[in-house]
Amino acid sequence: MRSLSNAIPAGTPSRRPGITPLVGSSAAIKKATALAVMLVPLAGFVLALRQLASGDWRPLDLELFAAGYFVQMAGITMGFHRYLAHKTFRTSRMVEAVLLIAGSMAAQGPLMFWVTTHRRHHSYSDQAGDPHSPHLFGTDWRSRLKGLWFAHMPWMLAPDVSGWAFFAPDVLASRRLFFYHRTYLLWVLLGLALPALIGGVTAHSWAGAWNGFLFGGLARVFVANQAAWCVGSISHMFGSKPFKTGDQSANNWPVAILTFGEGLQNNHHAFPGSYRHSVHWWEPDLSGWLLAALGKAGAVWDLRQPDAAAIARLRELV
Ligand SMILES: [Zn+2]
Ligand SMILES: [Zn+2]
What we know:
Layout: E1 19-21, H1 24-54, H2 59-85, E2 90-91, H3 93-104, H4 111-123, H5 141-152, E3 160-162, H6 164-167, H7 169-172, H8 175-182, H9 184-203, H10 206-232, H11 253-258, H12 265-270, H13 286-296, E4 300-301, H14 308-316
Antiparallel strand pairs: 1-3, 2-4
Helix pairs in contact: 1-10, 2-3, 2-4, 2-10, 9-10
This protein binds zinc ion (2 copies).
One zinc ion (ZN) binds next to helix 12.
């Protein structure tokens, strides 16, 4: 286990390379944006629950929720994470567009924020500088609980910024990829408007549009993001650790099922360049299975994965 001597009060800007503290209005803007990302979908989720409780809903609302969940999770895991942050496969511009637009609909922040934050997480995993580690507060149960909560959501409020040129010069240099960063808000709004449109048109009413907006839009963002943020919190604290990774990443099956494979964090930190997070066929990794199928269909190619010898080598270190 890595020493916790690096522990700093979480949320304090770290002096490690690539991290710049934010002050004044920049810090306030970041905080306000993060609060909106956390609280607006929560409000939508509560309103959707009220609709469910009152019986004022249609099966289509739940279908819009499920379809939206799939699109957002597939976009984040296959597009933002495995394609862009780790470059684990290649694909056409068309598939790239679909994946990055779907990922933007998750409202987890613009593409540059996501990629720089994530690469920083891998650079400083569970040490000072990791943007969302649950292990930076201390080792007693109260500190661990505080860390778990911090790594789930409040990490987004930290007054610092992950350097674009430091963590993602490749994305910054690409006009094609940067386009999806610039147009982020458009895709978030589209992700909210589409289910509203489908709900409204099929019900011929504003009430139908409202339910579509709530279930396929805000509530979907809330539930899917709660699952996604469990990857940084729960999957760095609870689960099995078949590989020695030098951090606290763990394979957590419930999180992996909800996040299409991302909860297999120990596997992923051991082999970050692999398109799949499962090492065995029976580990739940929907995005890995989908990418393998897309590879067979010729829609994606150059899928990278460790060979059996590399897996065996790393396993022996435990
Ligand atoms: Zn991780
Ligand atoms: Zn990763």
